[in-house]
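Supplementary Note 3. Input sequence used for the single-chain structure prediction.
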Amino acid sequence: MEIREATVEDLPAVMTVFDGALLATDVAAVRRAVDRGDLLVADERVLGACLLDGDEIDAVAVRRARRGQGIGTALVEAAADRRACLVATFDPRVRPFWASLGFDIEAVAESERYRGVRE
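The predicted structure, written as discrete structure tokens, is reproduced below.
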């Protein structure tokens, strides 16, 4: 499996992956990330995608049929290779995923969400 920077041609597939994971992503923001080189995708058929905004991971998702195969892990590891520090905010149900990747996790005040940092 290859992790690479997305191209404009990948946008429809990326949006399908994000929509399938019920992630609220704006196509204009995703397009800007492509232009900056901040959108990573797994494989030529876009099995998963990771959207970066500076040190923040705004979204990471994998096609439902391909989850549990290490694709999300590979995407986050590739993002970590590009950044000295990564930050992610996420729901409790995916906390084990982020913990397994070495993120230091804390609860977000007055929220049901968590914030993870990996340096």
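The beta strands are 3-5, 39-42, 48-53, 56-62, 86-90, 104-107, 114-118. The chain has one domain: 3-118.
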